[in-house]
Amino acid sequence: MRQVLIIDSPPLYSGYLKDKLNTEKIKVVFAEIKKDAFPKMLSVLPDLIIIDIEEAHKDFYDFLTKKRDDPNASKIPIIISGPTMERDLVSSLAQYNVIKYFNKPIKFDIFFKAIAKSLMSTFAFDPTLGAMEIHVNNNIIFIEVAKGLNREKLSILKYRLTEIIDLAHISTPKIVLMMSDLTLSFVDGANVELLLDNILADSRVQAKNLKIITTDSFTKDLVAGHVQYSGVQVAISLPLILNSIVDKTETTDIANLITEKVLDSTDDMNQGLVQLSFHSDISQDDAEDDSGLAATIAIIEDDAVSRNMLEHSFESLNAQISTFATGSEFLTSTNKVEYDLVILDVNLPGLSGFDVLKILQNKQYFSPTIVYSSEKSREAVMQALSLGARTYLVKPLKPEVLLQKAIEVLRSKDNM
């Protein structure tokens, strides 16, 4: 049986790797570079070594040097994942028989192709289109699944959740699973079960604390028909499950609860996590920077000054911007264009922003929408979110704040 030695990998990384490689009948052995990596390598003499590093430290180079100088181990190929490294340094690793260096966040499908090539094998990999976004606010973990149910991403989710719960020190996690743009049928049943089972795999996640937002009747029927999902709540919009997931002791204002507890993620909780990234998620091998999103963005704003300011702000994203003074003009354009992002005011002449959201929902046009409006009433926030808006931002905001939120939504549209 072929064997792979994995050194210094975090839980998500090691768990998913082990599951995937075991499926391919490949034995996995784990080691720590500062503790037992070299003796384990000599005892196992694996077909491949995979190393994950946070930095190229002395112990790392000591291991590589000892391996290179050992006649039994020198020819074992190595694949490394780590921080961005200068080309000259990457090239210097070739002397240690490092055949591939992946900058983090690694793209798992490309990563496994390199592993398969080294082992002279072919791995099965689900090509289904699918997007997944995860963010955290206090003890609430929001998971958005869109486009489709990709089994690779569903499998990674189990380890990602445990990693987040551990990192954020959440004793009683509450999970909000959002699948608002998915229409499923019985052929998707196994994938829905995989998704739910992986969310509930961590014993700290109780079924009663899993809330699913979907308009899909199949998902609701599947949950109701499986005893293991007893207690899982299914609703058609976020406001309907809000009372059961947030602590209302700080405020009774529903709009504040939504904006403070739901829409604002705790960004530092997301740092250091292995990202759910795939080559198919982006258009180039190397991740693009924020100035090269190459996105199509629609701005619907009736005030000419505000519209021009927004257009000018978004030009820094190197995006293709289309501006509209009315909702009707924008809706006409959606017959020909699928926008990557929509910036929408609710106070518009003729059709209101709420009317626009309702029409988009009815025609199943699911481009992510940021509502950006001076209207800040509880009813407005709840109505916009229930009609499918991704987030609700209240004017005025500094341009860089709005841009950052837009970048987050654009990235999440294609990632995890």
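The record above closes out task 2.4. Task 2.5 opens with a second protein, given below.
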Amino acid sequence: MIGDTDLAPRARAARRAPGESGRGQAASPFRVDRDRIVASPFFARLAGVTQVVSPAGTGLLVHNRLTHSLQVAQVARAVAERLAGDPVATALGGCDPDVVEAAALAHDLGHPPFGHLGEQVLDRLAREHLGLRDGFEGNAQSFRIVTTIDLHGPGGTGLDLTAAVRAAVLKYPWTRHDHPDPHPSTASLPPRGGGPLPSAPDAGSAKFSCYATELDDLLAARAAFPVIGPWQQTVEAAVMDTADDIAYAIHDLEDFHRVGVLQQPGVAAELTGWRRAPGTAGPGARLERLRRRLAERDGWAYDDDAFAAAVDRVSAELVDGLLATAFDGSMAAERAVAEFSARWTARLVGGVRLRPDPPVRAAPVVLDTAQWHEVAVLKFVHQTFVLQRADLASHQRGQATVLRGLVGALADWLTDDDAPRLPPRLHDLAELARAQGAGLEQARGRAVVDYVASLTDGQASSLLDVLTGRSGRLWTDAAVL
């Protein structure tokens, strides 16, 4: 329950855009936000968007962006209920479980087809071929959806979410280039995600949560949290971000154990090799490179003994535990997966704590030393033994080809003599970008990016087939939101 001393700041956090209404069936304004997000078609489309591999491409049940978002929301709410009412959280603006759950459900709304691969390809196309200085970023697209594009709130644009929920969606609370000043991309030690793209050092921050077109919405949301520093997440955003890390570290490992991709011998060799003789070559070398990166970039949290203990724990519970028996679809195998997930989720959630004055690479909500290192090692296993596989790389090259073809075909259509027969939504998105002050070419480019980003994996492939003449069907399922 909110105490008397919290009424003023939480009242600011519950405010919506001027003139908009918080009407809804729930009593809490933050619960109204949660309900609006769940009712949005942008949320429903996440069932057809890649988490790691395409949800339609395996023939087996793997997580998609929808199930991932639901799991992040579950973890985030559990953490928020532990922190709600904590004096540190209250002093930093509050930690309402409804706010955190709403932000977790919304955090991936902007993910384009084919997940992070799609995000990287769209960003490069937007900057290099469509002339968009802000490029594309999934977090910024999520914020654009809830504030500008989605029409399912009571106002003319966006979902009319409260300031607290909008601020909690801002995992990286800056724009790509100019806000705030000084900008994190220019810092010698930037916040996590704030540094420049390695492949494009002049392109601004690698990660950011707001395009320049939505900067006023960012400023209005953040104004409700005056004690939060310009590069710092709100407590509620930090809970959402931490929950995302926890879900990612655990649930993707489950998927690839189920489909037989995550094999015990390779993981065991790497972890055991590091324990025996960490070096620059051979088994254990990649894990040693991770250790050195953590020590260099995150000295505020890194500890040699904690890293070694994390390797031992992951070896015991993942390598010698879950992966020791191949998944065969039996009830016993499912029970082993469920127990592994529940045990690790409880352990990581139990390690969450508040840090009132965090260093630049941290947030007000952090994992304890042991759990922080364990998440790093779990994510290493996933990245090394799943994401770096050659068969996944070949699949992703095909997905990149789909996106390049779509962007090129739609950009051409916007400029040729057949413009009157454009898909209505593509036309409307171009008009929206023009109304936001973009020039004609930039408006067309942003419209193409918004349009492609709103497709599911299947819709992207189907639409390219139509636009290239490979489909013999006049009517397809390639319609978009």
